[in-house]
Amino acid sequence: MFQTAGVGRSNEEPVVSWIAQVVQADHFVFSGNMTAANSSNSPMSPLVARDLKELPGVDDVMAIRYARPEFNGTIVYLVALDVVPYAETARTRVPESAVNLERFPELDDAHPDHKFVNKVMVSENFLARHTMKVGDTIRLAGPNGPVELLIIGSARDYSWSRGTIFIDRARYARLFGDELIDICHVFLQTNPAPHTRAFLEAYTNDKGLFLTDR
User: Fold this and answer.
1) Whose CA is closest to 105, among 79, 122, 84, 120?
2) Biggest distance spanned by C-alpha atoms of the chain
3) CA–CA separation, 59 and 182 (whole Å)
4) Nearest alpha-carbon partner for 155 in 142, 172, 167
5) pLDDT digits over 179-214, tens only?
């Protein structure tokens, strides 16, 4: 009993701490109810993120696209996200996480210094599982041939036991020809408008999308 409790707690504490760091949005918007028994999720147009950001009381929106490419003989998790909103909002809400986020803005596709290098961050378990290190290159199959991704850093992440790759969503869209998004993290202003939730519900209901809170 004590041994089982010890193992459970040693797993629970770091995972709960990690969730508190990465799940900071006030609301989440996606297509399909992932909490239902017949849960399913469909991709959305990137225009959804733009529309949500223009609603009263919304401070910022981070859109994410998920993929599961094959690498090194197994399936890994590829997370394409808007890295600047992610780093800025998380740094403001969870200051102690700044050390893990300091390199994420470097993945921003709009930065002029990033034109010729496809930079990515990876999870710590990705490096361990695939015997790689910062500075190595990952090669994934793309629509026009192999895509080379340079590992510039690692971060704690428990999304996938076989390893996770983080890339700027704009860069991912260009490299893999995929502009769709899977979920929007909606961050509200410090003192949002009184009817912000109603605006969000009206928009998502009109588009047939699902809205949930943190």
Assistant:
1) 84
2) 57
3) 20
4) 167
5) 999 999 999 988 877 789 999 999 999 999 999 988
User: Token pair 């600047």 is at which residue?
Assistant: 84
Q: Please report where in the chains the tokens 């297509």 appear, as a residue.
A: 31
Pairing assessment for the beta strands 137-142 and 145-155 based on DSSP bridges: antiparallel
Question: What is the full DSSP assignment across 157-195?
Answer: --S-TT-EEEEEHHHHHHHHT---BSEEEEEE-SS--TT
Count CA atoms closer than 13 A to 90's CA, side-chain side: 23
Tokens found for residue 149: 């991704």
Q: At 160, is the secondary structure helix, strand, or coil? A: coil
Buried-state track 168-196, b at ≥16 Cβ within 10 A, e below 16: bbbbbbebbeebebbbbbbbbeeebeeeb
pLDDT digits (tens, 9 = 90+) for 91-101: 666 555 555 56
3-state secondary structure of 96: helix
Cα 155 to Cα 135: distance, rounded to the nearest angstrom = 14
Does the pTM surpass 0.90? The reply is no
